[in-house]
Amino acid sequence: MEKISVSKINKNYSKFSSYCHTLNAPLIITKFKKDDAIIMSIDHYNELVAKLELYSEIAKGFNDIKNGNCKNFDNLNDLL
User: Fold this and answer.
1) Distance (Å, whole) CA 34 – CA 57
2) Which terminal Cβ of the chain has fewer Cβ within 10 Å, N or C?
3) Residue 78: is its pLDDT beyond 90?
4) Dihedral angle, C-alpha 62, 67, 71, 75, nearest 10 °
5) Owning domain of residue 33
6) CA quadruple 2, 21, 6, 11: dihedral positive or negative?
7) In total, how many domains does the chain have?
8) What are phi and psi of 11, to 5 degrees?
């Protein structure tokens, strides 16, 4: 992941915004040479949020299986 200082972002935001959109990759923003924040396109952010929500639902399903909160069925008609 690329890193860029706050001062460089302030001077040329549109260039770095274009970078994020073109490569669909985030940039780490540094402050006093330490990682401080991340800038990314809204599309990239939405993809990450969607994945997080999916993984959360999958984890809930595994927890249901682990805790016995599910039913076995022999065929699709058992669900109807």
Assistant:
1) 35
2) C
3) no
4) 30
5) 2-66
6) positive
7) 1
8) -80, -30
Rg (CA), the chain: 21
> Does the pLDDT value for residue 77 go beyond 80?
no
- Compute the CA torsion angle 69, 71, 72, 75 (nearest 10 deg): -140
**pLDDT tens digits, 8-19:** 888 888 888 898
- Distance between first and last Cα of the chain: 49
In a domain, 31, yes or no: yes
pTM for this model (two decimals): 0.69
Contacts 24+ apart (CB under 8 A), 36-44: 36/6, 39/9, 41/17, 44/20
Q: What pLDDT score was predicted for residue 4?
A: 81
